[in-house]
Amino acid sequence: MKTLGTQIREARLRRHLSQSDLARQVGCRQSALSMYELGRATALSAETVGRLCAALGLLPPAEGEFAAERPQPEGVRAYCPNPECPSNLPVRVGQAVALVPRGHLAREGERHCAWCGEVLERACPDCGAPLNPGAFCAQCGAAYLAAAPERFDAERAAASERAFAWSR
Ligand SMILES: [Zn+2]
Ligand SMILES: [Zn+2]
Predict the structure, then answer these.
(1) Residue 12 in contact with residue 58, Cβ under 8 Å?
(2) Which of 40, 46, 64, 125 has the fewest CB atoms below 10 angstroms from its CB?
(3) How far is the CA of 143 from the centre of ligand 2 (A)?
(4) If you measure from the C-alpha of residue 138 to the centroid of ligand 2, how many angstroms do you get, rounded to a whole number?
(5) For the chain, where are the alpha helices, taking DSSP H only?
(6) Which ligand is nearest to the CA of 115?
(7) Is residue 27 within 8 Å of residue 57, measured between CB atoms?
(8) Domains (ranges, CATH) in the chain?
């Protein structure tokens, strides 16, 4: 049976997409996509693989298939609390800018943001509940990232919004 990485590679090539194009589209690194295609199942998060499948018209794998391919637990969800960090997604809400943390599953021993070096948050800063996807804590409603960046970079925001749309 072909690995999902191989299926993704073949579907990508059928669509004449480069790894960089596809990686940009789903919001992951080209190097991670490359490793995933070569069979390293832990190179991408389940969320990203879901976005890849959606982008390529592939059926997303069932829970069990992820479990089989990914025997190691990936750690707990974490995000970078630095509002200036490029890993967080500025999304325009009316006149204001909200920041959506690009949460990911932190590996054991991973303490610092790969982009800016800030210490990662692993729980809601207000109530301590485990993190959920999105910009707000499902337990207490606190925004994970309250402060907006001083400059609203429209180009970056547009790219982020596209990436964010895939993650919903
Ligand atoms: Zn950061
Ligand atoms: Zn909370």
Answers:
(1) no
(2) 64
(3) 8
(4) 7
(5) 4-14, 19-26, 30-37, 46-56, 63-69, 154-167
(6) 1
(7) no
(8) 4-69 (1.10.260.40), 74-168 (no CATH)
